[in-house]
Amino acid sequence: SRGTGRSRRPPRLAEPRRRLRLATSVALAMFCVLGVRLVALQITEGPAYAVTGLTTRLDRVELPAPRGNIYDRNGAVLAQSLEARFVFADPELVEDPQRTAELLAPLLDMPAGELAERMRPRLRDGQPSRFEWLARGVDVNTGDAIEALNLAGIGVERDEIRHVPGEDLAANLIGFTGTDLVGLAGLEASFDDVLRGTAGVLTYETGQGGELARQIPGGYRVETPARPGSDLRLTIDADLQYEIQRLLVDHMAPAQATFAAAVVLDARTFEILAQASYPGYDASDPFSVPEDRWRDAATSVVFDPGSVHKPLVIGAALEEGVIGPDDTVTVDPSIQKGDTVFWDVGKWHPPGTRMTLSAILAFSSNVGTIRIADELGARTLYEYQQAFGLGEATGVGLPGEASGALLPPEQWSGSSYGSVPIGHSTTATALQLAAAYGVIANDGTWKRPSLVQAVVAPDGSERAPTASDTRRVLSPEVAAQLRQAMEAVVTVPGATGTAAAVEGYRVAGKTGTGAMVVDGEYVEGEVASFVGMAPAEAPRFVVAVVAHTPREAGGGEVAAPAFSDMMAFTLAHYHVPPSEEPPPDPVLYR
Q1: Which is nearest to 391 in space by CA: 379, 382, 380?
Q2: Which candidate in 17, 175, 461, 551 could, as Cys together with 188 as Cys, close a disulfide (CB 3.0–4.6 Å)?
Q3: What are the backbone angles phi and psi of residue 446, rounded to the nearest 5°?
Q4: Buried-exposed string 268-277: b where 16+ CB fall within 10 A, e elsewhere
């Protein structure tokens, strides 16, 4: 062995204990790493993964807020919400869109193709859509039938529909909503934020796929309740509104009126008791008529008031002392202002006739009114027009209310000194004129007209939608003197407004004939009007009737008879006793 150079020692064997210790150390290190990672996943990162997983299993459904109701002054329902159902689809869970659509089509009265298209998967904001509307306003029984089908991906939840019991009753005031219950016209639109409330949200956990695509019992479920909208209580009297609308149709249809409006105003509070438009429409089926029929004619249509403006001029002159209640005015058949000659078109009288205020109003003397306005002055007349509420929207809360227009004195031409006093070069609405005559009826005090009496919150608390606004325009003495002079319009034989008389009651008012303004341009035909109050000795109500007809017809022919019927019904409806004394016998000439 020495010769070979090989060692005679035995080979060195591996130590099992050392290997075991090394393997154990490696295994323990691996378990420590896994343990640390598991702790990190469960304690620090676990909630984030749980939220991510939960999010993929959540469905969200909007819970519509019950919309507030609209009532008349006595609590009669004018518009209300009734319980219904809405049907929706989760396109990610619908298994067979075509078959599902065929089952739903007869129940929803919709084409199967349209339903199937809504159920197909799609992206919204870059994410798969989990909610698509199929139908709203479905009646409760139909909703129950759809739920009984137990269709994958199809849900049914509580909804509501808008119901208008009176159909066309006060439709131009109330307006209507769309299928999503958002106000589109009238008070439904202008008070939409008050009526609609705040929608709630239901979020719940569902299984994934096939038969598991259902709400998980005991799973995640959070409901944010909807907050109901507030109710509106109007100043309108539904019974009176019905009759005023009926009378407006009865009088205006034969006259072939293109538009007409009537307003009944409480002379003490300036609350609007009725406000009608012609032609009207059915608020439960608004899209069956042209859009322009949705408007409220009493606040959106402007026109030259014509001779109904004359009492305002005379009232201002009495208040300023430029003329006395027993004074007379020298009236010729015509008068020239600038390049225009203004004629008295009523009862003929010789040059130099001395007419009282009663005669000027009874026979609607243009010349007499212009002479009084000359004494008053352009600036003072303009300020009284503003004080009577002309040139400014009343702010009753209806969308599209017009303000009308006044001509400032610095813009008057020579002819304006004739046209403005007799109600031209000025535009107004029927409601503005009713409020202006309310000044005369209310002993000289103007108040802002009101249509909404109160906003009633779900807890029953009430608030007025607008602050009251009043101002003194005439003294009580002047208002009484003017009312007495205006009675001649109805009582004097041959006067312009004899058709406005109401049996048993003293009436004060004025006829008018003006022109209609559309987009700043006059249109053919004339606007006939009568605005008056009764009982004249202590007025309770002001009624304004305005109508545009294609033929030449004055206020005494078209509007005065309608006024008579409307005022007669209003007085009887509120049990106002007849006048105790007959109207005075006016002196016309001296």
Answers
A1: 382
A2: 175
A3: -90, 140
A4: bbbbbbbbbb
Tokens of 438: 């309310």
Q: Look at strands 154-163 and 508-514 and give their pairing.
A: unpaired
Name the residue among 373, 512, 488, 367 with its Cα closest to residue 436. 512
DSSP secondary structure, 2-61, as one string: TTTT---SPPPPP-HHHHHHHHHHHHHHHHHHHHHHHHIIIIISHHHHHHHHHHTTEEEE
C-alpha–C-alpha distance, residues 151 and 143, integer Å: 13
Is it the case that residue 16 has pLDDT exceeding 50?
yes
Task: Centre a 10 Å sphere on the Cβ of residue 572 and count the other Cβ atoms it contains.
Answer: 11
pLDDT at position 11? 64
User: Do the Cβ atoms of 311 and 332 come closer than 8 Å?
Assistant: no
Asked if 448 and 468 touch (Cβ cutoff 8 Å), the reply is yes
Q: Is 277 a catalytic residue?
A: no
| Distances, alpha carbon 471 to alpha carbons 384, 387, 445, in Å | 12, 8, 6
Q: For the segment 32-67, what is each residue's pLDDT rounded down to a tens digit?
A: 877 777 776 667 665 665 555 556 667 676 677 788
Burial category of 491 from C-beta neighbours within 10 Å (exposed 0-12, middle 13-18, buried 19 and up): buried
At residue 176, does pLDDT exceed 90? yes
483 class by beta-carbon count within 10 Å (0-12 exposed, 13-18 middle, 19+ buried): buried
Phi, psi of 220, deg, nearest 5: -65, 130
What is the distance between the alpha carbons of residues 545 and 406, in angstroms, rounded to a whole number?
Answer: 21
> Is residue 542 within 8 Å of residue 531, measured between CB atoms?
yes
Phi-psi region of 252 (alpha: psi -120 to 50; beta: other; left: phi over 0): alpha
